[in-house]
Amino acid sequence: MKFRNGLKYFVFVSGLAGMLLITGCGNKSIIQNDELQDADSLAQDADSLAQAPGADDESGGTLCVRMAAEPEPESGSEPELGADAEQAPGADAEQIQGAVLETEGEEATPDADPETEDHVFQTWEAPLADGRILTLEVVGRQVDEYHFGVREVRVYNGDALLQTVFSSEGYWHEDYTSCWSAESAVEVLDLNFDGNMDFGLFGWETNNTIPFYYWTWDAGEGHYRYAGTLQGAELLPETEEVACSGRSGWGSYWTYYYHPNADGELLLARVVIEDSSEFDITEKGYYEGDAVRETWVPEEGVEIPATDEEIPEDELVLIQREILFEEVHDEGVSYFKEIWELKDGELQMISREEVFL
After folding, report:
1. What whole-number distance in Å separates Cα of residue 323 and Cα of residue 319?
2. Is the separation of the CB atoms in 103 and 63 below 8 Å?
3. Residue 295 is part of which domain span?
4. How many domains are there within the chain?
């Protein structure tokens, strides 16, 4: 049996625009004469205008171009995206959505769609337990016709850039995440119940529960740290656990439960596996086969963090097994449920009762 955070494998698992607006501006050249000019004079003036510097369109004037895209950087000074520099939140959004680029003496051409260029498309508030409210700027773009991707998250304390978190920290991606829309790309939550707001990035599309890359706030270090990949994460405040679940095949399901330690790190509490793939209704109207539900926990003294690495199966202990099975006899079919628990180092049946389906 193999267990894997994020993508879970078990013995019965097979695997898992740019807008371009051209307006006339500047001084427009206009032929003005107090006296009437003959046709030849008008033609000569027209030729002069066509050859004059800055004469671009039919109006003969200078073009003022406004487009929703970042201005071209100066030669040799192109900044690397996400560099940790003093930068006010929202600066990129203002550049991309409202930048004004004026060109003179050249024909205006549409620029690239700004959605395909890196831009700040979401801004979140992230309250901390110490009373501060951080600002999270999410930078991404349309990576292809059907997918949106996040490249980085910039973390600000007021106007000061504290940290740039790159999605490449996630296990499966180098540059951008992959999701079906910008709206679904990010979630902000207190993942480890410590009063500090954490966040996750939609990792990639699956036919299962969605895997997210998560970062939790490290109060001691004063920055976010990568916490691993979790699928279908659901917060359980009553037990301060995070339940991550999904389907590993027809009739086979898994749920991982994590709880935070004193440092806020998520540790595996238990694994629950349910397999009813062999338990199905027959043409005669009764169920056949067995359904099994198992609960595994780490060995005593073993801590297994929520990372992207495989969970070592030899460090897990089966502590409970529930079996639902059928018994066929002359009078028909009966169904029973047995519960086995770990006692004195081995599984022992503690109950057996008939159930009615």
Report:
1. 14
2. yes
3. 3-26+62-355
4. 1
Torsion 275-318-193-240 (CA) sign? positive
Residue 123 phi/psi, 5° resolution?
Answer: -130, 130
Tokens, residue 299: 């060995």
Write down the pLDDT at residue 113: 61
In 3D space, the residue among 153, 150, 278, 163 whose CA is nearest the CA of residue 218 turns out to be 163
Q: Which helix (H) or strand (E) holds 294?
A: strand 291-298
42 part of a folded domain: no
Domain contains 49: no
pLDDT digits 0-9 by tens, 88-107 = 554 443 333 333 333 333 34
Q: What is the pTM of this model?
A: 0.66
Question: Does residue 164 sit within a domain?
Answer: yes
Residue by residue, DSSP assigns 99-113 as -B----SS-------
Residue 48 lies in a domain: no
* 45 φ/ψ angles, rounded to the nearest 5 degrees: -65, -40
Compute how many other C-beta atoms are within 10 angstroms of the C-beta atom of residue 84: 11
